[in-house]
Every structure is written in C-alpha cells, then in structure tokens.
Amino acid sequence: MVRTALFLFLLILAGACDPCRDCGPLTYEPTVALIFVDAELDEDEEIKETIASDVTIFWAELAAEIPFEEGLKEFDTPLSNSTNGSTYSIGIGEASYQLALTYEVFRELDVDRRMLVRAQNIQAESHSFDSLVFSCNTVDCLDKETTITCYF
Amino acid sequence: MKKGLIYLLFALPLTGWSQETDSTSVPPVSPAFYFDYGKAAGSVIPEYQKWEGGFELIFLGRIQGVVELGQWKLNPDAIENGHYWVEGTYTRFGVGYIPYVDAGSRIGVGFRYATSSYSDRGDYTILSGSDLQPDIVETFDRNNLSATWYEAVFYSDKAVNKWLTLGFTFRVRFMQSYDAFDDPNTMIIPGFGRAGDKTVPAVNLFLKIEPF
C-alpha cells in the first residue's frame, strides 16, 4: 500500500510541475481579412484581386494609415482592441471607399493559456462598395477567421 | 446513483456491524487527527503551497465523522503572457464507513461536502501587433470568492503502531458552484483544483494519530 501511495504521490507531483517556459508579453491583435475585387470584370474574365500597391487603408478613429507589405492580395486589417467598432477609408487606385465594421471585443484564455483580445460577430455597419461578401469560418464570425470580399 | 449512496451510508455499516465478532473491545467513540504529508512534501515548491489536516471521530470502530481543513497558496503558470496567484482556505465535512479488514488495516468509503473561501489576482500584457493602438496591460484582483462541492471518497489505511496510522484517500470531487468570471476566469479553487472541471480526481496521503 505504501508503494502504491508513493507512486501516486510522485505521479501527482510530476503532473503539478508545468514550468512556464516562455512567459512574457504576447503580441496579438484581432484582424479581419479584406479582399478587393473589381466587380466590373466580365464573368469569363479571370477575377483579379487588387494587390497592396494599389490599395491604401486609413483607420479613421486612429487617424493612421495601416501599413501592408507589397504584393499582398489579402489585407489582414486590424480591429480595435478596446471598442466595438472601427471605420476605414480605403483607397483603390483613384477611387475612395468607406467601410464601417461593428463587432464585440472580448478576452479569451486560449488552450495554450494565452490571454488574447478577440472580436466576434463582425458585421458591416455601412459601406460604399458595390457589395460585400462575408466568409466566416465560425458561426460567431471571429477575428482571424473572417474574410470580407469587397466588390468595387 | 442516489440509491447506491444511501446503501453505502446506511445499509453497509449495518451489514458490517452484524459481522463484528468482538464488538465489546471497540470503544464507542475514538478521536483521531491526521496530517496530509503528501501536500506538505509538495509544498517544497514555493509556488505550490498546500497544507491540509483534519480531525475525526470514529464511532463504533468503523463509522467516521470527519472535518478536514486546508490552505492553498499557489502561483501557477496559468497565463503565458502574465501572472496568476490564488490563495484560500477550505473546509470539508463528511462521514465514512471504514471497517477493519484485518487487525491493522481499514478500507472504506465516504462522502464529503466542501466549501472554499479564496481570492485570486493576476495580470497580463497583450502587445498591439500593428503598433497603431495602445498595448493592453491589465490587472485583476478578486476577493471574497467562494465555492462548494461534493466528494466521493475511497479510504485505506494501515496501522504503523498503536498510535500512528498511514493511509491514503482517493477522491472524486463534483463541483456544485463557484464564483465565475469572463476570461480570465478563476483558474484554480483551493481544495478543489481546476475551476473549469466539473469533476476532479485527487489523492491524499495522510499520517493519522489516534491518541486513545
């Protein structure tokens, strides 16, 4: 019985030790992927997604332009980490468009024990594009898992 | 489930009593104190301070009424990008049926009702990836929290000498209620374990002193 007890004790002690190998600040920001497609293309014509060199995205509330790498076709656009909405002025070539998003910012401790700030139920409050198509991988339309295709 | 519990608590003791051959040598009530040396040994890790002991009365040599007291003070690695502390005390009340299976050994089952009073606090930092908006640096500090749960207990011991007994209990804890929050939720409840789990298995290793 004593041996069994000792074995169980060592088992529990081993399970209790879970050293934090890389504790420290985490870089994480909720984002939504934006894709810009010219809606005037013929149906037979190959769809051309607009690349970063033709696009500028200006975050209205922060009065700041969002930087993107050259050559991107999908723009991981940051969402607010403190308020439930954000508005963007988007320049594509000579044209300018508006996109206002609403969402719910919340905290999540993920399975890797990382505290994250996330956004869910991402929706368009208003926009000046021809149309928008939302693609959500989850029913909650979570950040990092939602793509908005903007037809202009 | 309920019928089985009622049998364990009432019918089984009576069955055992009828098999007792020398009941006159068993004192009607005997007190005992116990100390959880397993938790004490684990407390050599400064971040995992756990202490537990208890007092019990054994009626008719087999029916156990017990009060268990404990204190946890933990600093677990619960948040990768922050820190977390929790501390509190807990009390368990319960009964058990622990008859002798031979001259120096007892095996039995029991039931506990437990309450915990605790507080937790912590902090975390989330840096803005775009550097366009402020980083998030937040702290939380929550006091006067409480939890209640039940435990099903398997008990085994063996006498070392007339006064000292070594043994262990294997328990399954069933959460009843606790103060929950949006993330970061309370992560560990002193005396219970991980707050998100509805059932938690646990083992106690104890040294029991029976002075009389």
Write structural notes for this entry.
The complex is a heterodimer of chains A (152) and B (212). By secondary structure, chain A is mostly beta strands. Chain A has one helix and ten strands; from the N terminus they run αββββββββββ. Chain A has one helix at residues 2-16; strands spanning 26-27, 31-37, 55-59, 64-66, 75-78, 85-92, 95-109, 115-127, 131-136, 146-151. Chain A has a five-stranded antiparallel sheet, with no helix packed on it. In chain A, β6 and β7 (95-109) form a beta hairpin. Chain B has helices at residues 2-19, 37-42, and strands spanning 29-36, 48-59, 63-74, 82-97, 105-127, 136-159, 164-178, 188-189, 193-194, 199-209. In chain B, the strands form two sheets. An eight-stranded antiparallel barrel of chain B has the order 1-2-3-4-5-6-7-10. Chain B has a two-stranded antiparallel ribbon with strand order 8-9. Helix content of chain B is 11%, strand content 59%. In chain B, β4 (82-97) and β5 (105-127) form a beta hairpin. Chain B has one domain (2-18, 36-209): Beta Barrel (Porin), CATH 2.40.160. Classes of the chains: A mainly beta (152), B mainly beta (212). The interface between A and B is large, with 41 and 37 residues.
Specify the oligomeric state.
heterodimer
Give the helix level of chain B as a range of percent: 10-25%
The geometry of chain A reads as: elongated
How do the strands of the widest beta sheet of chain A line up side by side? 4-3-6-7-8
What's the total count of β strands of chain B? 10
- CATH structural fold name of chain B: Porin
Structure summary, number of beta strands of chain A: 10
Number of DSSP helical runs of chain A: 1
Determine the number of helices of chain B (DSSP H or I, runs of at least 4 residues). Answer: 2
